[in-house]
Amino acid sequence: MNGCFFHYAQSLWRKLQQIGMSRYFLPRNANSNNNNISDAERKKTDDWFLGVIGLALTPADIVESTWTDIIDLYIPDDVNATEFNDYLV
To answer: Origin, by domain of life (predicted)?
Structure first.
């Protein structure tokens, strides 16, 4: 399969925004609804999302096991994460 890495990553970011998970990546401020997200949860979500983007660079024969590892280690504690995972698969 061939495609543009930038557009792949951009489509994933747009989906993340669509389901309301971009708040994990936005800075904290007094007027936002993301102040209750811990630094650890932000880091975990960041690792999860970067892992998803990195799947495009993973050899085809280990994509499935890598994806399983990413889910096991980094999936955020957010209901919308399951929706995003379903979108990806």
So the answer is: Eukaryota
DSSP secondary structure letter of residue 89: -
- Residue 46 to residues 23, 43, 68: CA-CA distances in angstroms? 11, 5, 17
**Rounded Cα distance, 59 and 4, in Å:** 16
Q: Which of 73, 77, 70 is nearest to 24 (CA)?
A: 77
CB 70 within 8 A of CB 84: no
Listed residue (73, 83, 14, 9) closest to 45, CA to CA: 73
Q: Kindly give the interhelix angle for 5-18 and 79-88, rounded to the nearest 10 degrees.
A: 150
pLDDT digits (tens, 9 = 90+) for 25-68: 887 765 566 668 888 888 999 999 999 999 999 999 999 999 99
